[in-house]
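Example 3.2
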Amino acid sequence: MPITAITIENFKGIGEPVRVELKPITLLFGPNSAGKSTIIQALHYAREIFERQNLNPDKTLLGGESIDLGGFESLVHGHDLTLPVTLGFDLDLADEDLPSYTDGEIQYIGTDRLDNAGSGYLLDALYRITRASVSVTIRWSEQAAKPYAAMYSVSVNDNKLVTVESSPGGKQVYISKINPFNPIYLDEGITPDDAIKEAVRFFTETNELLSPDSVDFWAELSTSDVGAMLTPILQYTNFKGGVPGLTKPINILRQDSAIPRWEKNLTFDKEIWAEDIEFEDQPNFTRLLSSLIVGPGELVRDGLRKLCYVGPLREVPKRGHKPATSPDASRWANGLAAYDTLFFSDETFIDGVNDWLVGEERLASGYSIEVKKYRELQNDHPLMLAMLQGRILDEDMDLRNQILALPVLRRLLIRDEAHDIELAPQDIGVGISQVLPVVVAALHHKSGIVAIEQPELHIHPAFQVALGDLFIEQIRQRSDLTFILETHSEHLMLRFLRRIRETGENEAPEKRTLSPAELSIYFIEQGETGISCLPIRVDEDGDFIDRWPKGFFNERVKELY
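Structure, written as tokens:
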């Protein structure tokens, strides 16, 4: 279930909506201070919103000491508190079911299908969903002097589905609009326009012949082409004063924000229901709307939970450094999580890292990682005293048990292969210290988004092109992995273009094939209305389809000619 795109509006330097498609490898190019980091910071803000409804963050779960958003007043575009910040996410649900909620326990529709005669057929709509989009809008409340989630909306299969809104204080949360003519509710071959026309026809013609109180009226409506949603809305709800979700709101209880409570069924105001609704239809209808409203947002949250951020300045642990034993995703921001990961990894992972550090067709850095295991004896330990006093071979000494009773300690070292010297991490060059966290992050994460700022920082061009192959190999092995690379590296770009060209000519090395559909390139620059993101497409020959407006590749040509 990858997140396939992010849309950003009124966030920091971004004014007008900017949409970035996330392919397995997504590159953000542009001049310094153009706004490339803004895209990544929007992901940090989204994680705060979806993970813990923190709408006013300074420090973030992932940024640690490396990122300070400064709160809503700093991150809203132009510091204009009248503007709403909107973040939207597209999801690929071709191989993913929306979660279903029953009595607070998560179940999945694919394994628990409702087939009662009243409303179970509605759940067929869930099986038709292949794509979803979730959007949240955050506004500033002058009265409360803090931001609030004003709107939460869901679209599926590129059509609007439902919108939830909230009052500034969160006292009123309600579904303001349901689209009963979304194609997921319609039979094959029926378009939304067809369904709307059929609804108009039915209520102007059939209503003259049949009473809405008659069984025949509802039977006739259910067999018409108005879709599977309009009928239950009219049949199950009390539409005195308006039709719930269409011309009047549906009040939601037990939440104080437009953003739903994840992993929970929605709770509706009892006034919504018709007096004669069947016993099973009320919970089933609630369950359907909960899956459609809560489910996509929960999947966005789950996707953002897998986000890893590696910042542009990677630290080297200090001498005597002890790794963090508790998981802390923010330590990737300064690179220290890479050393934590190596410290506690098994030999298989260490070997994988060393393959990339030492391999001739890879980085060929001349350095490898060693994690030495040892047991420590204090000077006054009985075993140490026995050895010093020449009693080590006495029959009464149980050497094996005493040694095994000692705790196993670890020491992370870096070996200079050329000189066969063991070095501490603090003794290696800047280039190796900067590239090591990038390699470890790329190899460690099996799914989700790995966002890396300036992976090429302080490293030789040969390392930069090798990193390109590292990223390609990882997406070949892991279908749910996405790399977002904020970079200035022409060498990294050239390696991707080369692999696309070789793939088209059937000459790409094994595991290093790359297609244009797997590469997304954006040129970020400041415009009159804020930051703009210009997509740069690539063809099967590894050539650019779109012209670069300015920057790296034009400058290269100027220097050459």
